[in-house]
Amino acid sequence: MRYSKIDTSLFVENRKRFVKELKPNALAIFNSNDIMPTNADGTMKFLQNKNLFYLSGVDQEESILVLFPDAFNAAHREVLFLKETNAHIARWEGEKLSKEQAFEVSGIKTVFWLSEFDRIMKDLMSQAHHVYLQTNEHLRNSSEVETREDRFRKKFTAAYPLHKYERSEPIMHALRAVKSPIEVDLLQKASDINTRAFNRILKVMQPGMNEYELEAEFIHEYTRHGSTGFSYEPIIAGGVNATVLHYIENNKEVKDGDLVLFDCGCWYANYASDVTRAYPANGRFTQRQKEVYNAVLRVQKASLEMLRPGNQLHAYHKEVGKLMTDELLGLGLIDKTDVKNEDPDWPAYKKYFMHGTSHYIGLDVHDVGLWTADMEVGNAFTCEPGIYIPEEGIGIRIEDDIVIGEKENLNLTSGIPKEVEEIEEAMHNP
Ligand SMILES: [Mn+2]
């Protein structure tokens, strides 16, 4: 792993919180993610299943976690099944967790090799009535790929058809939405690495560079500070490219006079950062760019104030829409008639600001969480309003990552310049 050892109490506490929500005589099973194939014998970089990680800290493929708080044998209340390792395997594949190391990472005392799974589970299943399994219930998930968990579920439910199966996902969404202090520190570390990268861009960007050269500056800074890389495909978009919301080609020349949008984030210890800024290629905003930029910035600052305990995400998004409507009227992009005749399901402001303002962030970039509950202390959100004007070649989004606090919010990305004067100052004093 590239990250420093995480305090085991995080995973111990997470398991305590999780098992409290289970029905009596229930066990829960979590499978790791697959190592995804490319072509021939190639594979993608491994990314752990985030529920398994949250409950164990195990960051290795072919791992299974079983939690059974009512197990007769106290040693079977928390069990890990891992890929077997020995000197020969270590020589070929590199180091894998030993049973002792797995305990040090997770705080789980009972660790078996995977080959013992069927035998041990036969015993545990004879005692259990309910079985909690995980499914991907993320609102925006649309993947058709069968996961390791999916394959496991088919096989396991066929082997034990008469147990009562339950969803662990609603519990996980509620738990993972509220970040503990250890998690906030890890999110801050990811944000700190990202902060270095954005500040580096302010020093090196020049008209004539290609967008991918700027992308290289990010990965350079990420890698040398222990990140495993981008937490999503980065968007580096000069001029009109910034008005294409999911522009990820990053292959055009940055022109003098362009505003360049950077939507970039990195991983640290499986926690994500996700930030957007728009910086002028030549170090100076034009008058119009500044007007639009400051309009977005006002909406962003006011929106950040509304991410407070007791508020609701749906109402919040409506309020942001009102703020944006006022700014677009001020910029002359829409008029009062547009607003008067607007479709309530697709208000006039959507012409220039067509995406959501906030999402949960944590172990996933678009983290799991409750979209209908009140906001509470410990929730971590992005805040990312934008204005996109293709006819003027201007696309601006300003995005920070914050954690809701008791008295005030913690802005994890406040070290990334976002005031016009600050940006121009930094770009002219490399
Ligand atoms: Mn975002």
What is the topology?
Layout: H1 9-19, E1 26-31, H2 50-56, E2 64-67, E3 78-82, H3 87-93, H4 99-106, E4 110-113, H5 117-127, E5 130-133, H6 148-159, E6 164-167, H7 169-176, H8 181-204, H9 211-224, E7 235-238, E8 259-264, E9 267-268, E10 271-272, E11 275-280, H10 287-306, H11 313-330, H12 336-340, E12 380-383, E13 386-389, E14 394-397, E15 400-403, E16 410-411, H13 420-428
Helix pairs in contact: 1-2, 8-9, 8-13, 10-11
Bound molecules: manganese (II) ion.
How would you explain this protein's 3D organization?
With 430 residues, the chain is of the alpha+beta class. It folds into 2 domains: 9-176, Creatine Amidinohydrolase, Chain A, domain 1 (3-Layer(aba) Sandwich), CATH 3.40.350.10; 181-428, Alpha-Beta Complex (Creatine Amidinohydrolase). It contains 13 helices and 16 strands. The chain has helices at residues 9-19, 50-56, 87-93, 99-106, 117-127, 148-159, 169-176, 181-204, 211-224, 287-306, 313-330, 336-340, 420-428; strands at residues 26-31, 64-67, 78-82, 110-113, 130-133, 164-167, 235-238, 259-264, 267-268, 271-272, 275-280, 380-383, 386-389, 394-397, 400-403, 410-411. It has a 6-stranded mixed beta sheet, with helices on both faces. It has a 3-stranded antiparallel beta sheet with strand order 7-8-11, with helices on one face. The relative contact order is 0.11. Manganese (II) ion (MN) binds next to loops. Manganese (II) ion (MN) is lined by residues 274, 359, 382, 384, 399.
